[in-house]
Design goal:
By secondary structure, this protein is mostly helical. It has 3 domains: 49-154 and 167-250, no CATH class; 256-323, no CATH class; 334-741, no CATH class. Helix content is 64%, strand content 3%. The protein contains 36 helices and 4 strands. Strands 1-3-2-4 form a 4-stranded mixed β-sheet. Helix 17 runs parallel beside helix 34. The longest helix is centred in the middle third of the chain and has 40 residues, at 427-466. The termini are far apart. GO terms for molecular function: acyltransferase activity, transferring groups other than amino-acyl groups. Residues 98-240 form the Nose resistant-to-fluoxetine protein N-terminal domain. The chain crosses the membrane at residues 259-278, 347-369, 389-413, 442-463, 503-524, 531-549, 569-591, 606-623, 629-652, 673-692, 704-729.
C-alpha cells in the first residue's frame, strides 16, 4: 500500500508538471492573428477576451495569472485617471452613445488593456496633459498623423537585416474599424495658470483618436461626464472644466455656398479674362493689319474667339480699359528702378518698406498667439529691451500717418493748377472736385482691399473648420455681418473685437484723415487764416483729448491694458490723428517756405543722428511698462509728438537733398520696388500668417532663434504674394485712375 500511494503521488506530480507547461493566456502572436468578424466591427461576432482564455492551469500559473490580473487592474486604474481617451471608453454606456459607438469604444478599452499594437497606437495618438500648464500649455493635441495611420499605415521601409526590439504590428497593424481625429475644446477656470487677459488663452485643446461612428455630440457628453468624475488633473489644478464644443476637422459643404467664395472666384476669373484680352491686344498690335483680322494661323474655334475679341477691342475705350491689365507693362512698372530726381523724396521708399517689415514681424507674434503653448514666455520676451522693436511695432503705424499727412499737404500745395482752379471755382464746383479726388483714392485702394477681405473670409472659414486650434478672431463670422463698414472705411468707430480685418483699422483712419485734411486744404485756399486756426486748434485739442482718455482709462504700457483699451485708444481716430497733423504742419512750412534755416554740414549730421536717437528712444520708451498711468499718459502724448517730428526731419532732410550714411541706405533704389508693393504687403501678411499657422498640427514654442527664422520666411512668402496681388488687383486700377484723370485730347 505505501508503494501504491507513492506511485499515485508520482503520477500526479508528473501530470501537474506536464499541464503546467501549457499556458492558455493570450500572447502577442495570438493577438496579431486575432480576427474581428462582428457586424459592428467587421461583420460578425465580438470575441470576448475572457472566452479566449484557457482555464486549465497549474497552481503556479494561478499565482502568475493573479499577478497579471493585479497588474491589469493597476493599469486600468491608472489609465482611468490619466488617459482621457481611456476615460471616455470607461464612462461610455448604452445610454449615452449609440450602439455601434459603444461597442467600438469598449473594444478599444479591452484592446488597450491587452496591449494590442493598434490600440496602443490609439492611446499614444490621443492627447493628455503635458507639462507647462502654468505658463499657458493648453494644447493637449496628441498626434493627428498617428491617428491617421490607423487606416493608412506609414509608407516606411525597414530592412530585415537588423534586429529590432519593437513589436511587429506597430507600423502595419490597422484598427478593425474606422478612426477619426477629433479635437475637444474646454474652458478652464484654474487659478494655477498665468492669466494674461489677451484673447482666449483659457481654452484647452484635447486631440483624441476616436471611432468614426461616435457623433460629436456624444463625445462632448462623454467628455463632460469624464471631467466631472475621474480626471485627477482637474482636481489638482482646480480646472473646473466646461466642454465648449467638439471639432471633427472636416470642411463643411456650406463653405462653397459662401457669398465670399462666389465673389472671389468671379473677381479672379474676370481679372484673368481682362489680362487675356490685354495680352491679345498687345499681340494684335504687333501683327500685320491683314494677318490678325483673318485670324491666320489659328485653329477654327480659336479663330472665332479671336475675331470676337478683335471686334470688341476695336472700340478705343475698351482698348484703354483692357490695357490697364497688361501683365508685361505692370511687371515693368513694379520692378522698375531709376535715379532719384530732385523733386522726389527718396527716403520715403525705404522708410515705408522698413516699417512695413517691422509691422509684419509684430503680426507674426500676434497672429501666432493662438498657437503658442508658452504664451507667458512670449510676452516676457516682448518686455526685454532687445525685442522692443517688435513689441513697440504698433508705434510704427505713426510713421505711415506722418508720411500720409506730409504728402497730402505737400502735394496739394505744390499743385498750382489745382490751387488756381479752387480759387476760381464756386462752392458746387469745388464739391465736385473734392468728390473727384475722393473717388480716385477710393478706386486705387478698394479693389485689392475687397479681394483680401473676401480671401480672409474664406481662409478663416476654412481654418475654422479644419484647424486643430480654437480660432478666437472669427473674421468669417464678423465679415459676413459687418463687411459694409470696411467698404465705407468706418470700422474703427466700432469695438475692436467687432472689426472685420482688425489690422485694417489704420486704413479707415487714413481715409478719414484724408477727407478732413482735404476739406481743410480747400478751406485754406479760400480762407487761409481760418484753416490755420482750425489746424492748430485740432492739434491742441488732440493733445488734451489724449491726456483725458489716457487718465480716464488708467492707461499703461502693459500688454493687457493696451489690448483692453484698443477701442478707446489704439484704433480711435481722434487719438491717432496726432502724427497726421504734425506731418501736415511740417509739410505746410516746407511748401510755403515759412521756416528757413542755415546749418553747417556738421550741424546737419548732428541733427540727423539726433533724430535717429529720438526715434530709437521712442521705440524703447515701453521698456518699463509699469510706470503708473500718469507718467505713461505723458509719455504717450508727448512722446508721439517727438516721434513724429523725428520722422518729419528725415523727410524734410531728404526732400532738401541732405542726408547721412544711414539715410542714404534708406534712399537706395531697391526700396523703390519694395515701396510699390507695400500696400499689398501690409494687407496680406496677417492673412498668410494666420493661414500657415492655422494649418499646422502641433502647437508653437516661442523661441527667439526660431522666431527670427520664421519671420525671414514669412517676409519672403508675403513679398512674393504681394507682387502677384499688386499686379492683379492694385496696379490695373491705379492705371485706370490715371486714365480717368487724363483729359481727352482736343483736335
Amino acid at each position: 500500500m505505501p508503494r501504491y500511494g507513492y506511485g499515485i503521488s508520482s503520477t500526479a506530480l508528473w501530470l501537474s508538471l506536464l499541464l503546467g507547461s501549457c499556458v492558455g493566456i493570450q500572447n502577442e502572436s495570438t493577438l496579431q492573428l486575432q480576427s474581428f468578424d462582428h457586424a459592428i466591427l467587421n461583420g460578425s461576432n465580438i470575441w470576448s477576451n475572457k472566452d479566449l482564455e484557457v482555464t486549465v492551469t497549474a497552481n503556479a500559473n494561478e499565482v502568475e495569472n493573479d499577478d497579471d490580473g493585479a497588474k491589469t487592474d493597476r493599469h486600468e486604474a491608472l489609465l482611468a485617471q490619466s488617459s482621457i481617451i481611456y476615460g471616455l471608453t470607461e464612462v461610455a454606456n448604452a445610454s449615452n452613445v449609440n450602439p455601434i459607438c459603444h461597442a467600438q469604444l469598449k473594444h478599444v478599452q479591452r484592446s488597450i488593456l491587452n496591449k494590442q499594437p493598434w490600440a496602443l497606437k490609439v492611446l499614444d495618438a490621443s492627447g493628455g496633459k503635458p507639462s507647462g500648464f502654468i505658463f499657458g500649455q493648453n494644447y493637449w493635441l496628441g498626434s493627428r498623423e498617428a491617428c491617421g495611420s490607423m487606416q493608412r499605415p506609414l509608407g516606411i521601409t525597414l530592412s530585415k537585416q537588423y534586429k529590432r526590439q519593437m513589436h511587429n504590428g506597430l507600423i502595419t497593424q490597422q484598427s478593425p474599424f474606422d478612426m477619426d481625429y477629433r479635437v475637444i475644446y474646454l474652458r478652464h477656470n484654474s487659478p494655477w495658470q498665468v492669466e494674461l487677459k489677451l484673447m482666449s488663452e483659457q481654452i484647452i485643446h484635447i486631440g483624441l483618436c476616436l471611432p468614426s461612428s461616435c457623433k460629436s455630440s456624444e463625445i462632448q457628453q462623454l467628455t463632460s461626464d469624464y471631467m466631472a468624475g475621474s480626471f485627477k488633473d482637474s482636481d489638482i489644478f482646480e480646472m473646473q472644466p466646461e466642454v465648449l464644443y467638439v471639432k471633427d476637422l472636416k470642411l463643411r459643404d456650406v463653405f462653397y455656398d459662401r457669398l465670399s467664395f462666389k465673389l472671389v472666384v468671379g473677381f479672379v476669373l474676370a481679372t484673368c479674362a481682362f489680362m487675356l484680352c490685354a495680352q491679345q491686344l498687345s499681340v494684335a498690335k504687333q501683327l500685320p493689319a491683314d494677318g490678325h483680322v483673318d485670324g491666320a494661323g489659328l485653329a477654327p474655334v480659336e479663330s472665332e474667339i479671336w475675331r470676337a475679341l478683335h471686334f470688341l477691342l476695336k472700340w478705343r475705350p475698351v482698348q484703354s480699359f483692357v490695357s490697364c491689365y497688361d501683365v508685361a507693362n505692370n511687371w515693368r512698372r513694379i520692378v522698375a528702378t531709376r535715379e532719384n530726381s530732385s523733386s522726389e523724396i527718396p527716403l520715403l521708399n525705404g522708410l515705408r518698406s522698413v516699417c512695413a517689415v517691422g509691422i509684419l514681424i509684430f503680426h507674426v507674434m500676434w497672429f501666432m498667439y493662438f498657437t503658442v503653448h508658452n504664451k507667458a514666455t512670449l510676452l516676457a520676451y516682448g518686455e526685454q529691451i532687445f525685442f522692443q522693436y517688435i513689441s513697440s511695432a504698433p508705434l510704427l503705424v505713426d510713421v505711415f500717418f506722418t508720411i500720409s499727412g506730409f504728402l497730402q499737404t505737400y502735394n496739394f500745395l505744390r499743385n498750382t493748377k489745382q490751387l488756381q482752379a479752387i480759387r476760381d471755382n464756386g462752392s458746387i464746383a469745388n464739391v465736385k472736385l473734392f468728390c473727384k479726388l475722393l473717388f480716385h483714392r477710393y478706386l486705387r485702394l478698394v479693389p485689392l482691399y475687397l479681394i483680401v477681405m473676401g480671401s480672409v473670409d474664406l481662409v478663416f472659414a476654412y481654418i475654422g473648420d479644419t484647424s486643430v486650434y480654437h480660432i478666437n478672431e472669427r473674421f468669417d463670422e464678423i465679415c459676413s455681418q459687418h463687411w459694409w463698414r470696411n467698404l465705407l472705411f468706418i470700422q474703427n468707430f466700432y469695438d475692436f473685437n467687432d472689426l472685420c480685418l482688425n489690422w485694417s483699422w489704420s486704413m479707415a483712419c487714413d481715409m478719414q484723415f484724408f477727407l478732413i485734411a482735404n476739406a481743410i486744404l480747400f478751406l485754406y485756399v479760400k480762407h487761409p487764416k481760418s484753416a490755420k486756426l482750425l489746424t492748430l486748434g485740432g492739434l491742441v485739442a488732440n493733445i488734451v483729448w489724449s491726456f483725458g482718455i489716457g487718465i480716464k482709462s488708467n492707461f499703461e504700457f502693459s500688454f493687457d491694458i493696451v489690448y483692453g483699451t484698443s477701442s478707446q485708444i489704439y484704433i480711435n481716430p481722434i487719438v491717432r490723428v496726432l502724427p497726421y497733423i504734425v506731418g501736415s504742419i511740417v509739410a505746410f512750412c516746407l511748401a510755403e517756405r515759412r521756416v528757413s534755416y542755415q546749418l553747417s554740414e556738421g550741424q546737419q549730421r548732428w541733427l540727423w543722428h539726433f533724430c535717429l536717437l529720438v526715434f530709437v528712444i521712442c521705440i524703447h520708451s515701453t521698456f518699463k511698462r509699469d510706470l503708473g498711468y500718469m507718467i505713461t499718459v505723458v509719455l504717450f502724448a508727448l512722446g508721439r509728438i517727438c516721434f513724429s517730428l523725428s520722422v518729419c526731419w528725415m523727410i524734410v532732410g531728404s526732400a532738401t537733398g541732405r542726408g547721412v550714411w544711414w539715410s542714404r541706405l534708406l534712399e537706395a533704389r531697391c526700396f523703390q520696388h519694395l515701396n510699390r508693393v507695400s500696400y499689398a504687403f501690409y494687407l496680406l501678411n496677417p492673412l498668410i500668417i494666420s493661414l500657415i499657422y492655422g494649418l499646422s498640427s502641433s502647437s508653437t514654442h516661442a523661441d527667439p532663434i526660431m522666431l527670427c527664422i520664421i519671420c525671414c520666411g514669412f517676409t519672403l512668402i508675403v513679398y512674393l504674394a504681394s507682387i502677384v496681388f499688386s499686379m492683379a488687383f492694385e496696379l490695373p486700377y491705379s492705371n485706370l485712375s490715371s486714365l480717368l484723370l487724363r483729359k481727352p485730347k482736343t483736335t
